[in-house]
Design goal:
single chain; 357 residues; alpha/beta; 8-stranded mixed β-sheet; 15 helices; 40% helix
């Protein structure tokens, strides 16, 4: 029941949740929902905001919201729910609840990297997005983006193809099929990943929703990778949010002849770290409050680790039999992330910890 109440407060405070967040430390949820406009004003809200909040709460049809959630198999995750990601609790404009279709439990237990970029992406950009999504997901890193066509869609697809974790934050209701051309991907995300929003069910995708939505992509992420985009791209909003939230921003270099290289190249001139391989993200520090699961080594990871000693070794020289190169590289990324092997500047690998034999 509390999740439904949190959802109502979330919907009533869209756009100004930062004014309500401090009140949660001294007033209970039901006490807040019982305030009249004057009560909200006494808590420090401007009179016009207080009046709007109370009016919205009165007009919300929460029974309808719950019915739609049940019909599409969505769950509501309130601010105090253990499934609510800690990384989003302390951003400047925190959502007070989330609606989720799919693996809601992943939100709070996964290390995430955001991959964003142009909708009208080049073939190079689409390939980079899929490659990063696939390799990082195969190594146990979750991929978060916005389910837009182009870079977002390819990053999500790469993660799904790797059998990994991926989450999309939407700028509309969970029951709204947008964008329509990505219906198949959307369905796959609901079944094998997660679709998340803070917007009410049945709400259409409005233009102003997306820049505000982008703070959730960056907020959940350990870092943001910008693949392609122009200076007017929505990805720039994500970058701005990421910098405000203290997240790292990475840029993928592109062709000087491609107008979609404008944004990443601008970020590079401003000091963003260039990134040309998913392995470059392995050293990123985890976000405080984020729990990173450490599952047991796979058979491939154990096999690769046994071939690595204290002396730096090229991946090509490892005696790995019929193990596909893609599995070898994915295993090396995972082992490096676990701190079991290290990679030298010349891309040679060596044992970092004690033997597991």
């Amino acid at each position: 029941m509390d999740d439904v109440l949190w959802w109502s407060l979330n919907l009533a405070t869209l756009g100004f949740s930062q004014l309500v967040r401090p009140l949660l430390n001294r007033l209970g949820l039901r006490e807040l929902l019982g305030l009249d406009p004057q009560g909200w004003e006494k808590q420090g809200l401007p009179s016009n905001v207080a009046a709007r909040l109370v009016d919205t709460l009165k007009r919300l049809d929460m029974r309808r919201q719950v019915r739609v959630a049940e019909r599409i198999g969505a769950v509501l995750v309130g601010f105090d729910n253990p499934l609510f990601p800690a990384a989003l609790r302390d951003i400047g404009h925190p959502p007070l609840a989330l609606a989720v279709r799919g693996r809601a439990e992943w939100l709070a237990e996964t290390r995430w990297i955001g991959i964003v970029g142009a909708r009208q992406a080049s073939e190079y950009g689409r390939e980079v997005a899929w490659h990063f999504g696939h390799r990082l997901a195969a190594a146990g890193v979750g991929i978060v983006s916005g389910l837009a066509r182009g870079i977002d869609a390819r990053a999500h697809q790469g993660a799904l193809d790797a059998g990994g974790r991926t989450v999309a934050f939407l700028g509309c209701g969970l029951d709204v099929n947008y964008p329509a051309e990505l219906e198949a991907l959307r369905h796959a995300m609901a079944c094998r990943g997660a679709l998340v929003t803070q917007y009410p069910f049945e709400s259409r995708p409005m233009g102003h929703n997306f820049p505000y939505r982008n703070r959730l992509i960056s907020g959940l992420s350990n870092g943001i990778v910008v693949v392609e985009g122009q200076m007017t791209s929505g990805s720039l909003h994500t970058v701005d949010w990421a910098l405000q939230q203290g997240r790292e921003v990475y840029a993928v270099p592109g062709s000087i002849f491609n107008k979609n290289s404008t944004l990443p190249h601008h970020l590079l001139t401003m000091g963003a770290p260039p990134i040309t391989a998913p392995e470059d993200l392995v050293g990123s520090a985890p976000v405080p409050g984020r729990t990173v699961p450490t599952p047991p080594l796979t058979a491939a990871e154990q096999h690769v680790l046994q071939q690595i000693g204290q002396a730096p070794t090229c991946a090509d020289s490892l005696e790995l039999g019929a193990l596909p190169a893609s599995q070898v590289l994915s295993a090396l990324v995972s082992l490096e992330m676990r701190g079991l092997v290290r990679r030298s500047p010349s891309n040679r690998y060596y044992r970092a910890g004690p033997s597991l034999n």
